[in-house]
Design goal:
242 residues; alpha+beta; 9 helices; binds flavin-adenine dinucleotide
Length: 242
C-alpha cells in the first residue's frame, strides 16, 4: 500500500516569456508606423509607453495585448483544472496523462486558513465562507485522508490486476493533483484574472473558488513582474480585460 500525500499548496512557476510592455506598444504602432513601429516604440520612454497602453486598454483595442506570451508550469488539483480549462481562448495546455502513467498519490487538503464553512448569511449566488473551528477542520482532514487513501488503494489494486490506467483512475476524484504546462498571452491572462481573482478594485467583481483564486494570485504576481505597466493600467481600468 502506498501512503498518500496530502498537499495544501498549489504551485505556479514561471517557465518562459516572450514580449514586454514595449512589445505591446510596438504591435499597436504598426497600425500607423508600419515597419518603423519598433524604432518608434523604442524611442518613447516609460511615459510614452504607459500612455499608449492606457489608451488601448480604455478603448478596448485588445489585439496588441496578444503580441506577447507567458509559459508557466502548474501543479494543481483536478478540480482547479476543471475550472481553468474552461478558459478556451488564448490558452494552450499540455497535461500529465492518466492513461500513460500512474498518477502520483498526492491529494489536495485545504490549509486551516481556507474559509470552508458557509457564512451565516450564505447566498449561493455570492458564496461567502468562514474558517472552520479546529475540531471541524481536523475532522474534515481526517475524512479526506480516509477517502483518498481508500481510493488510491483501489486504484493500485486495479493497476496490479492489469486494468487499463485510463479506467482505474475513475475512482480517484477531483482532489488528486495533476501537472500542466500552460501558455497564454496578456490579453487572455487579464480575462482569466478578472474572473478568477477577488479584488476590491474590480469593476465587475467575481466570486472564484478559493483554490483557483490562490493559483490566479500567484499567476498575477508573475504577470506584474514581466508586464508591470500593463498590469498597473489593467488595475486602473477596474481589472477589466481589454
Ligand atoms: C465564479 C464563476 C462561476 C462559474 N460557474 C459555472 C457553472 O456553474 N457552470 C459552468 O458551466 N461554468 C461556470 N463558470 C465558467 C464560465 O461560464 C466560463 O466558461 C469561464 O469563466 C471561462 O470564461 P470565458 O468563456 O469568458 O473564457 P474563454 O473561453 O477564454 O473565452 C474568452 C472570450 O471569448 C469569447 N468566446 C469564447 N468562446 C465563445 C463562443 N463559443 N461563442 C461566443 N463567444 C465566445 C467570449 O467573449 C469569452 O468571454 C463559472 C465561472 C466563474 C468565474
Amino acid at each position: 500500500m502506498t501512503q498518500i500525500i496530502l498537499k495544501s499548496t498549489i504551485d505556479v512557476e514561471f517557465v518562459d516569456k516572450m514580449g514586454s510592455d514595449q512589445r505591446i506598444v510596438e504591435a499597436m504602432m504598426v497600425s500607423s508606423r508600419g515597419m518603423d513601429a519598433k524604432d518608434f516604440a523604442a524611442s518613447l520612454g516609460e511615459t510614452g509607453i504607459s500612455g499608449r497602453i492606457k489608451y488601448i486598454m480604455n478603448k478596448r483595442h485588445g489585439g496588441p495585448f496578444e503580441q506577447s506570451a507567458l509559459q508557466i508550469r502548474v501543479h494543481a488539483p483536478i478540480k482547479v483544472w476543471r475550472e481553468w480549462m474552461r478558459h478556451r481562448i488564448g490558452f494552450s495546455y499540455s497535461e500529465e496523462s492518466g492513461r500513460y502513467k500512474q498518477l502520483e498519490p498526492i491529494f489536495w487538503i485545504p490549509p486551516p486558513e481556507r474559509p470552508m464553512v458557509e457564512a451565516p448569511d450564505f447566498k449561493a449566488s455570492n458564496p461567502e465562507f468562514v474558517p472552520a473551528d479546529p475540531q471541524t477542520y481536523r475532522l474534515f482532514c481526517w475524512s479526506r485522508r480516509q477517502v483518498y487513501q481508500t481510493a488510491y488503494n483501489e486504484y493500485e489494486a486495479n493497476l496490479a490486476g492489469g486494468i487499463d490506467k485510463g479506467l482505474a483512475r475513475d475512482g480517484l476524484g477531483v482532489g488528486i493533483f495533476s501537472a500542466c504546462y500552460v501558455t497564454c498571452n496578456p490579453r487572455s491572462l487579464m480575462h482569466f484574472l478578472e474572473l478568477r481573482t477577488k479584488s476590491v478594485v474590480a469593476k465587475r467583481p467575481s466570486s472564484p473558488l478559493w483554490e483557483i483564486n490562490n493559483a490566479a494570485n500567484q499567476l498575477e504576481k508573475i504577470f506584474a513582474e514581466h508586464w508591470p505597466m500593463t498590469w498597473e493600467l489593467w488595475n486602473a481600468n477596474g481589472r477589466m480585460a481589454p
